[in-house]
Structure formats: C-alpha cells, structure tokens
Amino acid sequence: MWQDEFGQDGKPDSAGWSYEYGFKRNQELQWYQPENATVRDGVLVIEGKRERVKNEFYDPSSEDWRKNTPYGEYTSASINTNGKKAFQYGIIEVRARIDTAMGLWPAIWTLGVERPWPANGETDIMEYYRVQGQPTILANAAWAHENKRAAWDERKIDFAHFLRKDPDWPGKFHVWKMDWTQESIRLYLDDELLNEVDLNQTLNPDGFNPFHQPHYILLNLAIGSNGGDPAATDFPRKYEVDYVRVYQRE
C-alpha cells in the first residue's frame, strides 16, 4: 500500500513525513528538531545528542513545562505521517535497530486521525524503556476512559527474555509488526506475538471506537522520563530504521 525504504540520502521524504518540534510529552528531556533525522546508506538515523538548545517558546510565567523550561540539554527527532499517509487495517511492518542505552526511549507507534488523545486511539507497536528500573519492551493500545486519563491494554516483556534468545540482540535489526483487522490488533516482534488487543473492548465512553478509523505512523527517540536518567550515558546515540511498509488486502 505504501513503503519507505529510506533509499535516498538526505532528509526523510517530505511526501510522507513531517517533524515534531520542541518539547512535547511526558516531561522528556529532548528538544525535537528536524536536524536530528537523516537518511544515509539506506537507513533512517534518528540521533539523540547531548547539546544545549534555547527554548524559543520560553515563557517563565507559564505553568506548562514545555514553555517554562528555558533550555533543552538534549536534542532528538520525532517524525510522523500525519496529514500525509494514514491507514485503516492491514499490516504495518517496521525493521529497526534500537539503542538500549540508559536514558533512551525509542518508539514506533500510531495515532488516530480524529479526536484528541486518548480518544483518537494509540497503538504502541514498539516501545523500549525502564519499568521499575528494568529494561522492558512494550506493546500497547490506549483509548479514552471515563474515570482515568486513558484505558490501556498493555504488555510489558522483560528485555532479558530477548537477550536469553540472542545475547547480541541489541546490535541487530529486528522486525516489529502490527496486524490490524476490524476485530483485533496483533503486535509482533520477529514473528513472536507480544500482545493481542480485542477491538470489541476498545470503546470510548461515548461509544466511538478509535481503532475503526485511519491511523498515522510516528517514529521517535525520546530521552529521559520513562527511559531513565541519561546523565551517565555517552552521546550521541542512534535509533536506526531500515524500512516502513504498509500492506492491505485487495
């Protein structure tokens, strides 16, 4: 249906990808900027750097951390297909090599095109971060809930599970897959089923099902927050994506 093999050196193809800019979520430490996403040698490289940047939206009187933080001490990139490529059902497949260093939070995820979060629906095809201090691979879905910030169908797998299968796991590329039908979302890592989400259960309080609408794709490398403290980690760090492919049945 659509693919990006990242075959052309330079910037990600603007026909498919846009950038996030500045501070965004979860009180993460990185300042997102386009400069940290480049395509070289057939791979999208999202680079995390330790460098000070001035917050151009700085407002000391604001109560929003995204505005009252004067500087970012780290930079990274977050790209997405919002407004350019959106998909409903089928298979999304991403081959990537993630950096598992302390402080890093790489992700492959989707968001629905209609409604604000979490009522638009979120699918985490891949997240890697620390859960109670332990490195963890996550495969999740979120939607709106009446009494709390979001309802989650979460699966957290201790990273040691993958290291036992292959001690060289962090140095290799792996394939993450979202198999999405009207009834379910199945999330795989190297053909191992990590989570199956029953879409009969993912209704917002108003009855809207956010997984029965088109979603767009996001690729990002966050720093800090759930990723842990990056202070002792050497930078720069790299999150590499070999391809993004979307399949749909005729």
Brief characterization of the structure:
The chain is built from two helices and 18 strands. It has 250 residues and is mainly beta. It has a single domain (2-247), classed as Jelly Rolls, CATH 2.60.120.200.
Draw up the topology in text.
Layout: E1 2-4, E2 18-19, E3 30-32, E4 37-40, E5 43-54, H1 65-68, E6 71-76, E7 78-80, E8 90-97, E9 104-112, E10 122-131, E11 134-143, E12 151-153, E13 156-158, H2 160-165, E14 174-180, E15 184-189, E16 192-198, E17 215-223, E18 237-247
Parallel strand pairs: 3-6
Antiparallel strand pairs: 1-18, 2-7, 4-5, 5-6, 5-18, 7-17, 8-14, 8-18, 9-10, 9-17, 10-11, 11-12, 11-13, 14-15, 15-16
Family: Belongs to the glycosyl hydrolase 16 family.
InterPro entries: Beta-glucanase-like, ConA-like_dom_sf, Glycosyl_Hydrlase_16
Domain GH16: 4-250
